[in-house]
Amino acid sequence: MTIGDELLIGQIVNTNVAWMGEFVTLHGAEVVGSSTVGDTREGIERYVRLGLEEADVVLLSGGLGPTKDDITKRVLAEFFESEMYFHEDTYERLCKMFASFGREPLPSHKEQCYMPRAATVLTNKRGTAPGMWFEKEGKVVVSMPGVPYEMKYLMEQEVMPGLLKKYTTLPSLYRTILTAGAGESVIADKIAAVTDRLPDNYKVAFLPNLGKVRVRLGVTGLDVEDLRVDLDKRVKEIVAVMPKLVFGYDMETQEGVLGDLLRAKGLTIATAESCTGGYLAHRLTGVSGSSAYYQGGLITYSNALKIKELNVCVETLEVHGAVSEEVVKEMLAGALERFGTDVSVSISGIAGPMGGTEKKPVGTIWLAIGNTNKVETYKLQLGKDRLKNIEYTGNFALNKLRHFVLDNY
Question: CATH code at 309?
Fold first, then answer.
């Protein structure tokens, strides 16, 4: 259950409910429902009561901040018929936290230290608001802050360990196979021979997203070790029928996998971007240790910079236009010369939603990937959503770069 008017009106995307659902499922719980309510006493009370009727555990996030609209704690205190008291340990922790910033807690922060006596206080080392654990008639209600990284900390460090001590769950194991380069229906068809003969205690799910598809395989049973061995076997069978499409597993990323590959082979890379505006460079440098292989990049958004920084010929631009195979090939050559890297990638296109022509509609994007000996070019015809076009292009480029390295080094 997530709480906050900002969630209901779409001001903030509700990522908490998705993360909590996945997290508790991985630990053997069954999610029977979710809800989002505003900052009202009636809404919070009604949905807590409904949750307790349907489930053993109700998890709440939101409404624990220091401002007047954060009413969750007071509502829960009344719901559990509990008086409030000042929690000294929480106040001492806040004083130390603010002292490290060279500040003192505000009166509103001190107010956060008043807790329902019926609650077990959960220490939140990532923020000011503690979590609260209530029990009623063998069931549990847990209230956590709405700030995602604070909620995740409490779930991982306090809430889930406590739940696993209280409840016995049937072991469930999951493995996610990460693919790129083919759509959901193509992948489903490729692996059908494996998935069609999975035992009844298995579940398979396909999760597509902009040129990538996650294939999640889950199994439930009594013996964890037997489950693990059998799950590994099934995963290998799936990968065997589509080895070129699989780039990683579980929480791995395309940029992380590519980075490991570049590092293992002792290669360096540079980027030359136009319509993606540095998005690919951002992805590559988001990986810790990327300085070992990423040398740098240029955002040559204008034709003038393409000419000046990457030695793209004026005639090439005049004859073929900036969005063309010829231009991205010259951008690639310029990046390789400028940065002296083993491999480079260049991108130029019309991200949209404006700027297209009849011959080159919005979503036309050219890429070149290669080295001084070999160049591969690709033309994408995407839609009119600017941000989706940029993200798809980044995913596509990372996948093709991975293949180029594997095929040529």
Answer: 3.90.950.20
